[in-house]
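step=encode ok
step=design start
structure_in=
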């Protein structure tokens, strides 16, 4: 089979939605722009494989390392067909923003994964895309047999430097934060995990909340243009994903000495047009503050650190009014995890 390029196929509109083809072992289906399902060819194999895995990238159009990673993985599978142990959904999230080289076109796509956007008339390309992606996820997981493990890794890169460059956001999880799921991230050198305190309208939260998937937003270093990423740093993640796709299900032990867990304490949303952060634009994610130190000024409200050692993640003074402008987090012991 000709090497399949997920990025070219998406941006070049090379495929027709519904088009399918096969190699010696797997059935490939182009469900829509940038939405590719690959599953074992024999229906019996497809039913018996015990995993349904979603791998997404490009939800923000300028976050290129994850796109390069998933393009390479799909290309390798097309060139050298291998027996999949999983049904797999590859997603390139926001093709229009990828073309622009921008985070988004009209609106941040990763704030729109909420059932309300499946019903409402879309007001812009991102609202339409969020609706299409949620439907693709719903269909993919609804076709999973009850015994199939559901997984979604939504891959991103961050705007700022970070004291912990590879980190994940674990969506709000009233049933507890799984030690085994965190151990899998650690095996991929994602050694820092934020434990969310509340529901959000992100892609990973959608899969976790509505489909009980082991789902994470995974940050893989800093935003760089295509070709500017050091892809060797993503090798451990690639190996983990390949084990999930082709091997025995990975069950690494958590290294409690090395894992860094942070409990989210606040999601601070910008409320006023007059909004500023009280620290430099190049201050790294996970920088810590002392209790009472100012973090932001929002209209007349002064926002301060509530605890010694409170750290900031994803600060962005340019977000629209009403949007999340930063998270505050506190380091936690591994005993916070459940099994
Ligand atoms: O570096 C930044 O400020 C943003 C990087 C990014 O896109 N992060 C995701 C995190 C999603 C989550 O909280 O699960 C986002 O902001 O959408
Ligand atoms: Zn992102």
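sequence_out=
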């Amino acid at each position: 089979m000709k090497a399949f390029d997920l990025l070219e196929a998406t941006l070049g509109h090379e495929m027709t939605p519904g088009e399918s083809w096969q190699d010696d072992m797997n059935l490939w289906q182009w469900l829509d722009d940038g939405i590719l399902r690959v599953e074992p060819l024999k229906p019996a194999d497809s039913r018996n494989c015990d995993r349904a895995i979603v791998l997404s990238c490009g939800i923000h159009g300028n976050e290129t390392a994850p796109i390069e990673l998933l393009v390479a993985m799909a290309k390798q599978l097309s060139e050298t067909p291998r027996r999949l142990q999983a049904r797999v959904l590859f997603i390139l999230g926001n093709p229009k923003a990828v073309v622009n080289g921008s985070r988004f076109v009209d609106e941040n796509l990763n704030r729109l994964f909420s059932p309300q956007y499946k019903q409402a008339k879309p007001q812009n390309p991102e609202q339409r895309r969020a609706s299409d992606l949620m439907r693709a996820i719903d269909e993919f997981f609804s076709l999973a047999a009850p015994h199939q493990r559901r997984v979604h890794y939504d891959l991103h890169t961050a705007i700022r430097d970070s004291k912990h460059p590879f980190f994940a956001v674990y969506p709000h999880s009233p049933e507890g934060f799984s030690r085994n799921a965190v151990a899998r991230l650690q095996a991929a050198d994602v050694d820092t995990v934020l434990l969310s305190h509340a529901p959000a309208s992100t892609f990973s939260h959608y899969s976790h909340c509505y489909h009980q998937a082991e789902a994470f937003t995974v940050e893989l270093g800093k935003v760089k243009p295509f070709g500017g990423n050091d892809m060797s740093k993503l090798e451990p993640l690639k190996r983990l994903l390949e084990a999930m796709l082709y091997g025995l299900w990975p069950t690494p032990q958590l290294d409690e000495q090395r894992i860094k867990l942070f409990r989210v304490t606040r999601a601070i949303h910008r409320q006023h047009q007059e909004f500023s952060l009280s620290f430099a634009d190049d201050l790294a994610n996970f920088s810590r503050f002392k209790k009472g130190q100012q973090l932001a000024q929002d209209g007349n409200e002064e926002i301060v650190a509530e605890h010694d050692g409170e750290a900031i993640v994803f600060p962005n003074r340019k977000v629209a009014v009403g949007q999340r402008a930063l998270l505050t987090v506190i380091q936690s012991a591994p005993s916070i995890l459940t099994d």
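step=design ok
step=annotate ok -> The mean pLDDT is 96.
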